[in-house]
């Protein structure tokens, strides 16, 4: 049954904003969450980015705000600056006619400016955990009148090491309040927070089949690490994406990829947690405006980005878990459009492929590595289409004389072939050196192997007293990257 926003009996101010935003039918997460939110029920929502969850918690949150009150009445805790900004922008749009005042608070922004903005009595604060806690400790934010708390992407905040900060923030909120917690997965520490700070929460779960992957063509390419970059550039030449996102596992990888793509003639920029907020916003604006054709990003930097028009997603490195895969490919295939997602799998990462397919309940199609000839043919087709478009625009009078002179000396096919050759971006084989990344192995597969070792079935078992530290230096570095990326709040982690 289709549920529209009219069915929620919202105030006229909210309906004006919703109509202006173009919302009509409620998504599954909205249809289930909004009535519970309006009834002051605590809610645990399991949903991915791209399912409409911001409006799902934002509409009941704004509906209950009293814009005449000088107090902070609601807080939204988000893992990254980008997500905090995006959520605050959407809440502003929802609350525009009600005149609800929304303020984003995040690290990397001048704290004095934030303190001045807080003195203007915002109704809703959207913030990253570290900076929120900083203001609470400075007593520049007081939460004693908060009646609604939202935790967005709680599992990502756990991954980034913010769980203690969240508990400290929640301990400053009155015991009588509504909590809405959203998380793609439900690890034990998130369950403990729910048990401690929530009252008989209602569970809302968007099933995997309802996630935005049904209209995305999913492929994998089995390719050796050293051949990945040439494979990527040939795919870009063949597929000619309008807007593409390339995902790398680490900040170093993103920097190297963006530089290498530019070296070979592609307009590319990278975003990750070590960039200043200003630089990231500039890169995103260029991408949205089409000034750059390829955005290279880490998982954390791309979390919550609302970018329309992405036609292709390339997983240059396999994501660290299947849930991250769904987040990544959800950047394309939005608003009813189709998209393509290509994942590069090295021979040692086959277990990750199986884990992803089990999570999405869908097989990926194998794509063969493209050849140099196919890349050149793809670029020729782009040129031919541009020529056809130019001919159809019929704005060629100024060039007819030069064309006629050429045809006096050469046949038409030779002239057209020369024009296609001149206008075609031929595949570039400029040497590129990327730092190798260790292969990613499915956690499930790792657990199976480690249990075999404990049972004495695997290689390397040295008896009961032997100690094993299976966490490689690479894994430790990767953990640091995930903790440091995207928040910039209070942690200064090692960059790599």
- In DSSP terms (H or I, runs of 4 or more residues), the helix count works out at 20
Instruction: Count every beta strand, where a strand is a DSSP E run of 2 or more residues.
Output: 14
The averaged pLDDT comes out at 82
Enumerate the spans where pLDDT stays under 50 for 5 or more consecutive residues.
208-212, 443-496
Let me know the CATH homologous superfamily of the largest domain. Answer: P-loop containing nucleotide triphosphate hydrolases
Largest sheet: 7 strands, parallel
Write down the Rg.
26 Å
CATH class categorisation of the largest domain: Alpha Beta
The tally of domains stands at 2
**Backbone structural class:** alpha/beta
Q: Report helical residue fraction.
A: 40-55%
Q: Roughly what fraction of the amino acids lie in strands?
A: 5-15%
Question: What is the first-to-last residue Cα distance?
Answer: 50 Å
Query: Might you state the CATH topology name of the largest domain?
Result: Rossmann fold
């Amino acid at each position: 049954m289709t549920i529209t926003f009219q069915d929620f009996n919202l105030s006229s101010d909210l309906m004006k904003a919703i109509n202006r935003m173009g919302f009509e039918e409620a998504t599954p997460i909205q249809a289930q969450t909004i009535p519970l939110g309006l009834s002051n029920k605590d809610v645990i929502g399991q949903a991915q980015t791209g399912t409409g969850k911001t409006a799902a918690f934002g509409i009941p949150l704004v509906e209950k705000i009293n814009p005449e009150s000088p107090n902070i009445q609601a807080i939204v805790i988000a893992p990254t600056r980008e997500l905090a900004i995006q959520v605050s922008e959407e809440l502003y749009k929802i609350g525009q006619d009600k005149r609800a005042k929304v303020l984003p608070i995040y690290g990397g922004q001048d704290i004095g400016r934030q303190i001045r903005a807080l003195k203007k009595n915002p109704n809703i604060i959207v913030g990253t955990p570290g900076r929120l806690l900083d203001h609470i400790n400075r007593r520049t934010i007081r939460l004693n009148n908060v009646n609604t708390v939202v935790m967005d992407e709680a599992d990502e905040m756990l991954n980034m090491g913010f769980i203690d900060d969240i508990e400290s923030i929640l301990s400053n909120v009155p015991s009588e309040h509504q909590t809405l917690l959203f998380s793609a997965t439900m690890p034990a520490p998130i369950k403990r927070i729910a048990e401690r700070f929530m009252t008989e929460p209602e569970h809302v779960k968007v099933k995997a089949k309802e996630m935005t992957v049904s209209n995305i063509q999913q492929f994998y390419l089995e390719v050796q690490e050293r051949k990945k970059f040439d494979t990527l550039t040939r795919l870009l030449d063949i597929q000619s994406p309008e807007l593409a996102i390339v995902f790398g596992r680490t900040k170093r990888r993103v920097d190297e990829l963006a530089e290498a793509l530019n070296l070979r003639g592609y307009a590319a920029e990278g975003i990750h947690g070590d960039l200043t907020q200003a630089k990231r916003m500039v890169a995103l604006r260029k991408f949205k405006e089409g000034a750059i054709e390829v955005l290279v990003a880490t998982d954390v930097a791309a979390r919550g980005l609302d970018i329309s028009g992405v036609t292709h997603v390339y997983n240059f490195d396999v994501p660290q878990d299947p849930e991250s895969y769904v987040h990544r490919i959800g950047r394309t295939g939005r608003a009813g459009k189709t998209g393509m997602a290509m994942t590069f799998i090295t021979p040692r990462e086959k277990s990750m492929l199986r884990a992803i397919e089990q999570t999405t309940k869908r097989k990926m199609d194998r794509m063969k590595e493209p050849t140099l000839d196919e890349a050149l043919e793809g670029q020729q087709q782009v040129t031919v289409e541009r020529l056809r478009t130019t001919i159809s625009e019929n704005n060629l009078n100024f060039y007819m004389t030069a064309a006629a002179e050429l045809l006096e000396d050469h046949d038409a096919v030779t002239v057209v072939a020369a024009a296609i050759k001149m206008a075609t971006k031929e595949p570039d084989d400029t040497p590129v050196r990327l730092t190798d990344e260790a292969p990613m192995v499915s956690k499930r597969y790792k657990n199976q192997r480690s249990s075999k070792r404990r049972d004495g079935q695997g290689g390397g078992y040295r008896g009961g007293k032997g100690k094993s530290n299976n966490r490689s230096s690479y894994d430790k570095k990767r953990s640091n990257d995930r903790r440091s990326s995207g928040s910039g709040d209070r942690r200064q982690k090692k960059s790599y």
